[in-house]
Amino acid sequence: MGNVFCRRLLRAVIGAMIGGFSMSGFGATSIDNLNRFFQEFQTLRADFSQVVMDENLVPLEESAGRLWISRPGRFRWDYHPPFAQQIVADGVRIWIYDIELEQVTVRNQHNMLEGTPASLLAGEGDLGTDYVIEDLGQQGSVVWVSLQPKNSSGGFAEVQLGFQNDTLRLIQLLDHVDQITRIVLSHVEENPQIPANQFHFTVPVGVDLIEKEL
Fold it and tell me: The domain spanning residue 9 has which CATH number?
């Protein structure tokens, strides 16, 4: 996952991780929020804004869009211009469509997500086994939880999830080069009806198709 497409995918889908786990040693608020997010919804729809910052918190890239999730293993992130891009996982393959470049890259979903937080979206891995989980407490109206991967070979060092009013609202991804990706969710809908074709991707006419690791 060394190219730009894969790094963006990792940063994006971290906010969409789905799984199930139970833990001890957390306060009731943390258990309730985490269990609700990871166990109680099958679908999710939201708007998002995303900013990538350097170690001095200087913004390097800002983007926004809309996301859809359907458990298990299907998601879609549509980025608005000027970084217009679609990332669609249909349960078997991941399609990455760069609209400006008129190029679609398709990969095997399991191979691409294996060993990453995004693998939880595909129903693989175990949160309690793969991560060290720490309750960061409450800051203002937001309750924060930290997830640190036990396998250091991934592309990030820590993920922080922020819950507000029992709903996931903030995600922060810290990578190994001290960059921070912050994702803010708004207009969050849990368990909405989402048509199956929302996760079906058809390559547009005239667009180059690059197939990798299928």
Answer: 2.50.20.10
